[in-house]
């Protein structure tokens, strides 16, 4: 099964590192993948034969779920099995490779399960010194039609563009905004019928940010001039600025603490394991 495990890891590492199947790797990519696969095999064997692995087993349900996760990446089972064959893998070989992978994950969970809780004082000190991290500016869900000004071309000089954007606004009174955006807008959002999505107020052009509060939801603005050109803007939803409280942030801080602590414990254990 050693060959099967190596083939599985080769396919996995090639995809993770280069988004390619092994047969499409060039010589340098193959060298890097092979090097990483050997490291992983060495690491897996060290973990599996460690004292901490004693008594750890992978359940049939866990193995079946891992198999199903692999299968879910393909349109059908026949495509999945054809891919296995292309990589020189068979069912039992893949199951064996998945079993070892899951076993290593379970051992790593075992050696990092004793994480001390985050002290409230430490959490509050971090929160107090990083409040900006837990707040956001007001946000607007917007759509727009943009026509840019470019004085290098007569038809795109300011006066001509202003006339054109006014004509588009007049059409918008009786025609569908999405179709007009697709037809006239020079913003990439034209391909989304002018939809920009959620935009932070402090990242908008100041002229647009200043105009939005005076508009009702779905109301189309007058032409707004910015350094880019002229915009017709409408907003769909608005969320005011918000600063999260310490109580709201605490679960996130505890999660981060737990993840960092587990990673630290795992690295310490692996370093000790490989040093012997």
Automatic annotation (TrEMBL):
Gene3D superfamilies to which the protein is assigned, alphabetical: 3.10.50.40
Record SUPFAM superfamilies: FKBP-like, Triger factor/SurA peptide-binding domain-like
Keyword terms: Isomerase, Rotamase, Signal
Pfam families the UniProt entry points to: Rotamase
PROSITE patterns: PPIC_PPIASE_2 (PS50198)
Family designation: Belongs to the PpiC/parvulin rotamase family.
GO terms of molecular function: peptidyl-prolyl cis-trans isomerase activity
KW Transmembrane (keyword) present: no
Enzyme Commission no: 5.2.1.8
Catalysed reaction, written as an equation: [protein]-peptidylproline (omega=180) = [protein]-peptidylproline (omega=0)
PpiC domain segment(s): 137-237
InterPro entries in alphabetical order: PPIase_dom_sf, PPIase_PpiC, PrsA_foldase, Trigger_fact/SurA_dom_sf
Protein name: peptidylprolyl isomerase
Species per Swiss-Prot/TrEMBL record: Shewanella mangrovi
């Amino acid at each position: 099964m050693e060959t099967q495990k190596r083939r599985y890891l080769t396919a996995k590492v090639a995809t993770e590192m280069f988004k390619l199947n092994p047969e499409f790797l060039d010589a340098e990519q193959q060298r890097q993948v092979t090097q990483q696969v050997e490291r992983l095999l060495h690491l897996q064997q060290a973990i599996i034969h460690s004292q901490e692995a004693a008594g750890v087993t992978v359940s049939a349900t866990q193995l079946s779920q891992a198999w199903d996760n692999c299968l879910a990446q393909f349109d059908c089972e026949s495509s999945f099995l054809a891919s296995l064959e292309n990589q020189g893998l068979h069912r039992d070989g893949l199951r064996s490779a998945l079993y070892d992978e899951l076993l290593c994950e379970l051992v790593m969970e075992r050696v990092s399960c004793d994480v001390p809780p985050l002290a409230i004082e430490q959490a509050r000190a971090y929160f107090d010194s990083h409040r900006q991290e837990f707040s956001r500016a007001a946000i607007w869900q917007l759509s727009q039609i943009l026509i840019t000004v470019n004085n290098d071309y007569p038809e795109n000089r300011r006066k001509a563009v202003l006339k054109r954007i006014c004509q588009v606004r007049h059409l918008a009174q009786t025609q569908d905004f999405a179709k007009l955006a697709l037809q006239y807008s020079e913003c990439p959002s034209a391909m989304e019928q002018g939809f920009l999505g959620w935009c932070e107020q402090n990242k908008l052009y100041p002229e647009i940010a200043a105009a939005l509060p005076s508009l009702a939801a779905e109301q189309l603005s007058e032409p707004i001039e910015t350094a880019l050109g002229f915009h017709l803007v409408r907003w769909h939803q608005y969320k005011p600025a918000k600063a999260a409280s310490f109580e709201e942030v605490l679960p996130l801080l505890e999660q981060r603490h737990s993840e960092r602590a587990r990673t630290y414990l795992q690295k310490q254990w692996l370093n000790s394991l490989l040093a012997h």
